[in-house]
Amino acid sequence: MSLFPVIVIFGLSFPPIFFELLLSLAIFWLVHRLLVPTGIYDLSGTQHCLIRRSIAAFFI
């Protein structure tokens, strides 16, 4: 038996970090949808490449 906290949904166990990542992703997409029409947050050109590279570097 594990001493680490887990959340059980439909018989499947998930660590709390899983839900934190889902919540972070949901907040990111909400902010993204709100800021793109204003032009403040635009994922075109070099900015998009920099974001993609920084994400890739984080996971490598």
UniProtKB/TrEMBL annotation:
One Pfam family in the UniProt entry: DUF1656
Assigned keywords, A-Z: Cell membrane, Membrane, Transmembrane, Transmembrane helix
UniProt cross-references to InterPro entries, sorted A to Z: DUF1656
Residue ranges crossing the lipid bilayer per the database entry: 6-31
Official protein name in the record: Efflux system membrane protein
